[in-house]
Design goal:
The complex is a heterotrimer of chains A (88), B (501) and C (103). Chain A contains two helices and four strands, in the order E-E-H-E-H-E. Chain A is α+β, with helices and mostly antiparallel strands. Helix content of chain B is 58%, strand content 2%. The N and C termini of chain B lie far apart (79 Å). The model of chain B has no long low-confidence stretch (mean pLDDT 95). Classes of the chains: A alpha+beta (88), B mainly alpha (501), C alpha+beta (103). At the B-C interface, helix 4, helix 10, helix 11 and helix 14 of B face strand 5 and strand 6 of C. Strand 2 of chain A pairs antiparallel with strand 1 of chain B. Bound molecules: fe (ii) ion (FE2) (2 copies) and zinc ion. The site of zinc ion (ZN) has 9 residues of chain B, from loops.
Chain lengths: 88, 501, 103
Amino acid sequence: MASVALLSRLQFDAHTRVIDVDAKFTMDQVAAACAAPAVGYQTTHPDPSKPLRVRRTTDDDSGIALPRAMTVAAAGFTHFECVDVYVE
Amino acid sequence: MALLDRSRWYDIARSTNWTPSYVAESELFPPDQSDPYGIPTAEWETFDEPYKVSYREYVNVQREKDAGAYSVKAALMRSQYYENADPAYLSLLKMHYGAIALSEYAACQSDARMTRFSKAPSMRNMATFGMLDELRHGQIQLYFPHQLVTLDRQFDWAHEAHHTRNWATLAGRHALDDVMMTRDAMTTSLMLNFAFETGLTNVQMIGLSADAANMGDFTFANLITSIQSDEARHAQIGTPVIEIMIRNGKKAEAQQAIDVAFWRIWRVFALLTGIPMDYWFPLEKRDRSFKEYMHEFVITQFERQLLDVGLQRPWYWEQFLDDIETHHHCQQAGIWSWRNTVWWNPTGGLGPDERDWLEQKYPGWNATHGKYWDVIIDNLRNGRPEKTEAVGMPAICNMCQIPISNKGGTQWKARIYQREHEGRRYNFCTPVCRWVFDTEPKRYKDWNTIVDRLYNGEINPPTAENILRYMGSGVVSEGGRDAHGYDWVKGYDRPGTEAAE
Amino acid sequence: MTASKPATRSKNMAGPLLRGGEIAVAACEAIQEDNPEKQVVIEDHRTYVRVEAEGGLIIRRKTMEEILGRPFRMQELEVNLTGFSGQIETDENYMRWYLKLDL
Ligand SMILES: [Fe+2]
Ligand SMILES: [Fe+2]
Ligand SMILES: [Zn+2]
C-alpha cells in the first residue's frame, strides 16, 4: 500500500492523532497533514512565523528534525510510528 | 417465637466445606477459577467476613431498600421533573445508565463466580448476597430509565449500549471484562470488591448524588445512594481475602491485582463522574469539584483503608494524582469535539464564570485546557460552528481504549507510550496502561481498539459515516450534539469577558 | 488545595457515611452518646453525612432503641449506611468502625 498511518504529536495539541500519509509525501506535506485536523479546530499553530518540522518521537525528545524535502518512503516510516510535529 | 441470636448459630451455618469423594478437589475448585495462588483450603476456611448478615436479615433489609427507592420514584413521577430538566443533566443520566445498568449484570456474574468457586465458605455466603445485590442494581437501573425512552430515544442506550461497538462501550467493557469477568474468584474479589467497590464506586454513587439532589432530582439521588448501601456491604468481601493472601506470602500478588484494577477502573470512572461534576452541572448547583471528591473518598478514605489492610498505595500514585488534574478535562474536550460519536448530548458549558471556577479548582486550567476551548469559542463566536466538529481520529490507548490526550495549550504533554510485542506495535496513554499490558501480554495482545479496526478491515469502508454506523451512532438513536445549542458561549458577549485576548 | 479538608485532619479517622434522614439524625445522636470520650466530627453533605472520630466509633442497638423509642435491629442501619472510613465490625448489638494501624 502506498500510504502509512502515522501517530502525530503536534506541539501544544491536547490530542494525539492518527494521520494517513502517502509514501511520496515530503516532510512538509506530512506536517501539513498532521496540522490539518488540529489547527483551527482545537489548537493553534505553535508559531506561524516558522515552518512545522517533523521528527521521530523519542522518550527524551532528543530526535532531530528530518529534512523538509525528505519523503515518507525515504524516512522509512512504518505503521503507527509516532512523530513529533513542531517548530524549532 | 423468640429467635436465636445470629451469633449463636452463624458459625455453624457458614461452615459448608466438605471433603469431596467423587471428584478431586482440583476438579471441584479448578485453580484457574478458584485460587491460582495455591493457598491451603484450611487457610481459606478462616475467612471471617467483617460485615455479617443472615439470609433472613438480608431479605428484610433489601425489601425495605427497594420499597424506598420505588416509592420515591412513584411519588415524584407526576412532577414532570425529567420533561423540564436541563438537557445537560439528562446527558449525565444517559451516560450513567448506558455505562452502568448492564455492567451490574456483569458484576452479578462475577459474584456468581465467587459464590461457586471460592474455597472460603463464608465468602461464598457473602458473594451470594452480592450476586443478588447486583441483580437488583441491574434491574432497577433498567427500570428507571425505561420510562424516559419515550421522552428521548437516547435513553434507549441504557439497555443498548453494551450491545453496541460504541468506543465508550468498548472502553468500559474492556476494563470491566478484565477486572470482573475473566479472573479467578480470589483475584476478582481483590479487583472488584476491594479496588473497584471500596475504592471508586463512592465517587459516582455518593458524590454525584449530592449534585443530583441540588438539581432537584431526588429520584436519582435516592436510587444511587440506595445502591451504594449494598456496595458498602458486599465490598467487604475483599478485606479478608487480602488478609489471608498476605498471611500466606502472596502480598505482592494481591498488591499487583489491586494496582491493575484500580487504574483500569479509574480511567473509566474519571469520565463518568469527573466530566459531569466539573462541566455539566450549572455552577450554582455544584457541590464540590471532582478533585475534592477524589480527595475525600479516594486519597483520604481509600488510601487509608489500603494501608490498614496491610498493602501500599499503588506504585503509580504520583501519576494518578496528576491524572486527577488532567484526564477528565482532556476527555471532556475530546468527547465534546467528537460529540457525534456518543449517545448523550455533552455541553461545552464553559462561560467566563465556569472558567474562573475551573481555574480556582484546578490552578493552571486556563493556560492548558483553556487554550483548547479558546479556539472553539473563537470559532463559535465568529460563525464557524462546523470547525468545532472534530475531523479524523485520535490515537486510542490499547489498554484503556480512551483517546490518548494530555495537557496542551502552553504545555506539550500528550505522548504515546509504545510497546512492540510479537511484531505488533501497541499504543498506550500513560506508562501505567503500558505497565498493565506488560503484567500479562497474553491476556491483552489480541484485542483491537476502534482505530485498529479501521486498519484491519473490520470497519469497511473506513469512512466517517461508516465509523459512526459501526459504533451505533445514528442507529440506536441520533448521536450527540451540544446540549445547549452553544448558548453557553453567549456569556462572552458581556463586556470585559474576552475568552482569548 | 483541599479547602474542605484542613491539612490538620488526623490520619486515623474512622466512622460511617449515612444517608441523610431520620435514621441518620438518630444515629448521630446515638454515636455521640455511645462514644463519650471522643470528639465526633459530623460533616453534613445533604445526601450523606460523614461521621468520624480519631480511632473510630461504635454505635449500639440499645441506644438507637432509646432514641427512636421503638425496637431497632442493627441491620436496619444498613439501609442508610452508604459507606464508611476505616474498617467495619458488625454484631446484632452494635456496629463498630475502627483502624488497625495507628499512623
Ligand atoms: Fe452494583
Ligand atoms: Fe457491587
Ligand atoms: Zn490508557
